[in-house]
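I hope you will forgive my troubling you with a question about protein structure. You will find the record immediately after this paragraph.
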Amino acid sequence: QVQLVESGGGLVQAGGSLRLSCAASGRYAMGWFRQAPGKEREFVAGISWSGSSITYADSVKGRFTISRDNARNTVFLQMNSLKPEDTAVYSCAVRSTGRTLATRVEYYDYWGQGTQVTVSS
């Protein structure tokens, strides 16, 4: 059983920054997803097991940065230049069956509890 502990959400003004953390009970390919009220969960960023491969949704490219500290089995999501449309519950996820990154929800099998990010205009 994989355990995930997220932290770092909160309320920030547009243009501000937040950093999310997700500590896992092992080393895995991981991703960040978000879900806004009334919308489907969407991919934000993914990182491979080694950290050598990274990809972003077009909506966050150039503003968000995913990284990992393998010594601590922790993945980070640095979010800069936040916009009101970034408001959502952000969840980290683990892909326990492969080491490459993935962008689709169905490739991830363990999920964090979610953390609220609210960006005010």
In short: The chain has a mean pLDDT of 96.
